[in-house]
Amino acid sequence: MERQSWSESDFEPKVDQIVLEARLAGLLHDIGHSPFSHTGESILFPNDKRHEHYGEAILLSPELGIGGVIDNLLGQYGVTKERVAQLISYQSGEYEVGFVRELISSVWDVDKMDYLLRDSLYCGVRYGLYDLERIVDTITLYDESPDGLLRLGIRGGGIHAIEGLILARYFMFTQVYFHAVRRAYDLILTDFIAELIQSETGSDLYPEGVMEYIAWNDPRILAAMNQRMNKDDKNLAWKLASRQHPKRVYETDGHADPAIIASAMFKLPKGLKEQYPAVQIWTDQAVDHPERFKMGAEVWPIRQSSGKWNSLANVSRALAGLVEIRQFRVYADVRDDDALENQIERSCREIMA
Question: How far apart are the C-alpha atoms of 155 and 147, rounded to whole Å?
Answer without folding.
Answer: 21
